[in-house]
Predict the 3D structure of the following.
Amino acid sequence: MSIRHVLSFGGGVNSVALMVVLLREELPFDEAVFADTGGEVPETYQYLETARQYLADHEIPLTVVSKRGRSLYETAWDRRVFPSAIWRWSTRDFKITPIQRHYRSLDVHINQYLAIAWDEVHRMKDSRVDYVTNLYPLIDRRLTRVDCVNIIQEAGLPTPQRSSCFFCPFNSVDRWRWLYETHPDLFDKAIALEENSKHFPSQRLTDQAFRERTDISLRSLAEVFADGGPLPALPAVEQQPCGAECGT
């Protein structure tokens, strides 16, 4: 059976570094694929064009796939929910499923490069479908996230902004602050989505950043940012996102 080697490209530090490693070491590399939820931050879409040109210079195509129909934000709004840190339906429906649909259309076996770094080895997992084999070159080379930044800089590429939806439930407090300061319009849209949820206020988009706190919503967090006052007393806790298709 024919085999196609494909990089699952998230647009963040890890996947950009892996792109460089694959090309630098002349490993089998036929295509990169990016799953667009419609909810990435503008910096990710801008960097996508940087990556597209870099790959084109090496005659590697970059394919953008997406779920048919409405965007992730529109879907969540219509359902009156937001992406779940527990059920991970957004990653499944808007990342994994469109990528696998593309793979099936190729009618070959896919060796899928996933950009998980050595310090995230716990995120490794086998493919759940028999037509895809997951490969982890960063882990094989014991390359950490710090190594990935160095690889990108050595290649003469700009360091990308973290890749994730602007309303991701795994956003850290620093990420929410960055969004508030850099893209206030998107922060307001995240507030609207949180408060539109049928589960609000018992569930909030800040739940993963502030454990065991039931009083911190995005609106209250925005008030803290605006006042310049101290953050809530409990330490912020950041989890890793769903899988290598998301947030790398």
In short: Strands lie at 3-8, 31-35, 62-65, 109-113, 132-135. Residues 3-154 form a domain with the Rossmann fold fold (CATH 3.40.50.620).
